[in-house]
Design brief:
single chain; 139 residues; alpha+beta; three-stranded antiparallel sheet; 43% strand
Length: 139
């Protein structure tokens, strides 16, 4: 297992797009994006949650979490000029980002009719299809 620590949390965007809470079914669309810094040995998970009610966008939350990987483990993951971060690690980073998003969502909606919206359990393996392979990388 790669050793890491979460180094940064950033709310990229948050918006309540309706003034009142409709009574219809809530649908959540999730987009996940990965970015990296070779110099800082970091992976950033960016998640955009779009909440729709009655075919109207009701709320947006985009959250970024940065994870710094221990230098020894980062270097050990380099082979033939390619850095490979295993799918399981990316899934774990995604799960951590979702957990942080739940707390941010609660805080941002506190005192509004939208406070009852809670992110349900999300199967991160549906969002992460394969290892993250970055090349070329100096070893």
């Amino acid at each position: 297992m790669m050793r890491f620590r979460m180094t940064k949390i950033n709310v990229g965007q948050f918006a309540l797009l309706l003034s009142e809470m409709p009574t219809g079914e809530i649908r959540i669309h999730i987009d996940m994006d990965l970015k990296y810094s070779l110099e800082m040995k970091r992976i950033m998970v960016s998640m955009l949650f779009t909440f729709e009610i009655d075919d109207h966008k009701a709320m947006l939350l985009q959250l970024n979490c940065e994870f710094e990987i221990a230098a020894e483990d980062w270097n050990a993951a380099i082979s033939d000029g390619k850095l490979t971060i295993p799918k399981e690690i990316i899934e774990y980073f995604g799960a951590q980002t979702i957990g942080v998003s739940r707390g941010v969502l609660h805080c941002k909606t506190e005192g509004t009719p939208f406070n009852g919206i809670i992110l349900p359990p999300i199967n991160v393996s549906d969002l992460v299809k394969e290892d993250l392979v970055i090349s070329p990388v100096d070893s």
